[in-house]
Amino acid sequence: xxxxxxxxxxxxxxxxxxxxxxxxxxxxxxxxxxxxxxxxxxxxxxxxxxxxxxxxxxxxxxxxxxxxxxxxxxxxxxxxxxxxxxxxxxxxxxxxxxxxxxxxxxxxxxxxxxxxxxxxxxxxxxxxxxxxxxxxxxxxxxxxxxxxxxxxxxxxxxxxxxxxxxxxxxxxxxxxxxxxxxxxxxxxxxxxxxxxxxxxxxxxxxxxxxxxxxxxxxxxxxxxxxxxxxxxxxxxxxxxxxxxxxxxxxxxxxxxxxxxxxxxxxxxxxxxxxxxxxxxxxxxxxxxxxxxxxxxxxxxxxxxxxxxxxxxxxxxxxxxxxxxxxxxxxxxxxxxxxxxxxxxxxxxxxxxxxxxxxxxxxxxxxxxxxxxxxxxxxxxxxxxxxxxxxxxxxxxxxxxxxxxxxxxxxxxxxxxxxxxxxxxxxxxxxxxxxxxxxxxxxxxxxxxxxxxxxxxxxxxxxxxxxxxxxxxxxxxxxxxxxxxxxxxxxxxxxxxxxxxxxxxxxxxxxxxxxxxxxxxxxxxxxxxxxxxxxxxxxxxxxxxxxxxxxxxxxxxxxxxxxxxxxxxxxxxxxxxxxxxxxxxxxxxxxxxxxxxxxxxxxxxxxxxxxxxxxxxxxxxxxxxxxxxxxxxxxxxxxxxxxxxxxxxxxxxxxxxxxxxxxxxxxx
Length: 667
What we know:
By secondary structure, the chain is an alpha+beta fold. It folds into 4 domains: 2-162, Beta-Lactamase, CATH 3.30.450; 175-337, Beta-Lactamase, CATH 3.30.450; 354-453, Beta-Lactamase (2-Layer Sandwich), CATH 3.30.450; 538-667, 2-Layer Sandwich (Heat Shock Protein 90). 50% of the residues lie in helices and 23% in strands. The protein has 17 helices and 20 strands. It has helices at 2-7, 9-62, 68-77, 131-164, 166-184, 188-203, 249-256, 275-280, 313-353, 371-377, 398-409, 455-500, 511-532, 540-551, 571-592, 621-624, 630-641; strands at 82-89, 94-99, 107-116, 120-129, 207-212, 221-225, 260-262, 285-293, 296-305, 355-362, 366-369, 382-385, 414-422, 430-441, 444-453, 557-562, 596-604, 607-614, 644-650, 656-663. The strands form 4 sheets. Strands 12-11-10-15-14-13 form a 6-stranded antiparallel sheet. A 5-stranded antiparallel sheet has the order 6-5-9-8-7, sandwiched between helices. It has a 5-stranded mixed sheet with strand order 16-17-18-20-19, sandwiched between helices. It starts with a helix and ends with a strand.
């Protein structure tokens, strides 16, 4: 380890420089600290001497010579660093002095003149003891020396450790580079070739190769790199141990699924058939590691070294991890190819079926669209944020409409199914069938669903509806103009017979009953003719108001409220909305045990909302969850045909609501 440290200048040169810099820094720090101590001591001595000289001058001017010793002593007592004070007259006579016997020898002297009276002159000499500063300097010197020693030991230990772990560092660098290549490499063969090149470059191997089992009993190298590349010329390997080619390290790894290490070709009998070939390229050791896919072995990863004993436990563990990562990379490449094929098939299916899938997260309004759904909704495939929009007309955003419709139903989990109008234009109307499931999550709701172009089906439904309307109108005309007239004539004839028989002694007994039956038939004929005739001739608003009037009575009050913008809704959409209101009112009258029914029709922007609310006993669990009876299924179907959604819910403690939301369409 020491020889390796000394032989590598990239290790010991930085180490020596670090120690030298630490020592130089310590010397500089000591010098600066002592310089600062002396400067501070000089400044303090000068200031103290000048202040004391001023006091002494005052005493001398006043002629108080006897108080000078006490003044010097008192002044020295307040500053422990003062070693001695001496006041001499101009002629050398000592006027007063003070000294401490414990002077260490390290001191700082300062003299200052004292002028007093008329041309009086004296000299004050002060000596400051530097023992405390010297002690601090010595302590700092010892601390820095100890720190430098610890630093030097640490640097040397780090250098020795770095030299010892240099090979391990190269191995882990090789593993890291391999993993980076596995994450970004296109194509299986390009990926494997890059891995072999990394192993030779960063691992220092003489040869690295990868073989994959393909058709036939023999395995040939799929990718290889290294200066000993010629070793592989004509090499054939197999897992069959009855053949010589299957009894070597690679065959053993293929057969057993376990790594095989040959740390000395000359000492390992299994490597004997390849010893001459290995010696020609200076190969002394090798390791073969199985590559897996699922539960089976699909190939071998092999490394060769010119140094015997190269593959110790640490290197083997790292190379086993590398083999596992390469196996995962191969699996990733295969799955990626399968995924691409699946996506291509899915895109083809979506294009053929004119359908697509979507995911929607609320309230974040994050919408993910497949290629097919993106085509139908006019969006780019993938995930994107969808802003709320109220744009109407041919340029409106179908994806935003989808989000708005689903958001209206996202207060509870469950399935949904509705028809969404997309860019409706009188010449080319388009409709999407939207179905899916809503799941409530802590962040709001998550929806997965499908969209499908049902424009042709909607066009057929419209034609069927119009044909049915025409047939109802024809039937109403026949009932009113033909059967009604016949029944009216029969009623008149029976009335005449009844009047003629009033005075007869033997009146026919069934005459009165026949007259009643004809009158009842005439009433039913008129009712059927009225119901079969167009019901929205005055617009949806007036028809809902008429429904409210017709439904009031028997202890139930029914009211209708229609906003001004929604009064003149016409066409098939208006008819579907009226039938929904009719069914909801009928259900409330039959089952809700209510006293009040409110019908409301409002328009907010391009959206219409029809609501039927009552104060009865409310819906049951099945009805609220969307699994109600025939009436609710019919209303759901009509809401989808109208291009909207329908919600059944209870109103708190009492009553229930049926709410339909649709985008208003042209008649």
